[in-house]
Design goal:
Elements (H helix, E strand, L loop, with lengths): L1 H21 L2 E3 L12 E6 L4 H4 L2 H8 L8 E6 L9 H15 L6 E3 L15 H14 L4 E5 L3 H4 L1 H16 L10 E5 L4 H4 L4 H13 L14 E4 L2 H12 L7 H9 L5 E6 L3 H9 L3
Parallel strand pairs: 2-3, 2-5, 3-4, 5-6
Antiparallel strand pairs: 1-7, 6-8, 7-8
Bound molecules: 2-acetamido-2-deoxy-beta-D-glucopyranose.
Length: 286
């Protein structure tokens, strides 16, 4: 008797967990988009495979937005990932991965220049990055830039260079009232103990999104918006499929990575406002 009760409880809990994991979830993902229309988002990465190892939940969530919000997504990768001399192969792998993730041909670019080479010990110069992204941002009317934060998820110095370069780029734009500068969002690096929880990551994030929807006393609620994208099974499978296009990179520890990493399931974003822009903005307040 007790055995069958246990069995039913186990079945109930498993089916609940399954249901919780199945679908995608998001919190305020629309805040990534500027109020300017049409909305053009640029994903700025350092190496081929960043797009699927770290950013897939967001790329997929943005494509699920309703048609009046739906942005055009662009991808700019600042190196071909030539650290092991595989640059040509990796360029093609990136293209195949972006096909899987739904970034159209003609909206994706890879730069290969001596100052921005895949190198774990090289800090990329902020001015060089700013010069590299400027033509793409201007030509394609980019109003949102998405990239790594100052910890770069994996502490890779090339990753860490990107938010500095993108923020520097924003400060070089002429300020004009009718055209606001692009908004810059950075992917939150979580502490190591949260990074490899596997399917616990999407479960915990969904629980936290659900809790945040409970109305609270506005006097005690914190004002900061959290922008979160959580993939369901379908999204995770697509990120996995995109990663499998990077076959030159699929050494054993990357299989571990795709099995347990939070970033295959969950992305959380914060906006980065360069100091000079913040001053300009507060200067224009009445
Ligand atoms: C990587 O960067 C370091 C530091 O900037 C430099 O000394 C080294 O030569 C670079 N390696 C390659 C292969 O370019």
């Amino acid at each position: 008797m007790l055995g069958s009760t246990r069995y039913w409880i186990l079945a109930l809990v498993s089916s609940l967990v399954w249901r919780l994991l199945a679908g995608p979830a998001e919190q305020d993902i629309g805040l990534l988009l500027s109020s300017d229309r049409p909305s053009n988002v640029l994903l700025l990465t350092a190496h081929p495979d960043d797009e699927c190892m770290f950013f897939a939940p967001t790329l997929l969530a943005l494509q699920e937005l309703s048609s009046h919000q739906l942005p055009t997504i662009h991808s700019l990768c600042l190196s071909v990932g030539n650290a092991d001399g595989l640059g040509d192969i990796r360029r093609r792998e990136l293209s195949a991965s972006l096909d899987v993730l739904g970034i159209a041909e003609g909206k994706r670019w890879v730069i290969d220049t001596p100052e921005l080479q895949d190198n774990f010990t090289a800090v990329w110069d902020a001015q060089v990055i700013a010069d590299a992204i400027r033509p793409y941002v201007l030509k394609h009317n980019i109003n949102t830039i998405l990239t790594f934060d100052h910890h770069g998820i994996s502490s890779h110095l090339n990753h860490i260079s990107l938010p500095h370069g993108a923020a520097h780029f924003l400060t070089t734009l002429p300020s004009s009232a009718e055209k606001p500068p692009p908004r810059l969002f950075t992917l939150v690096t979580v502490p190591l103990y949260e990074k490899y929880l596997g399917v616990l990551s999407p479960l915990l994030s969904k629980a936290s999104i659900a809790l945040s929807r409970i109305p609270r006393d506005p006097r005690t609620a914190s004002g900061a918006a959290r922008v979160v994208a959580v993939s369901g099974f379908g999204g995770y499978a697509r990120a996995h499929r995109a990663m499998r296009e990077h076959w030159s990179q699929l050494v054993w520890f990357r299989w571990l990575y795709v099995s347990f990493s939070r970033y295959m399931w969950v992305n959380e974003w914060v906006e980065l406002t360069p100091p000079t822009l913040a001053q300009t903005a507060s200067g224009t307040q009445p």
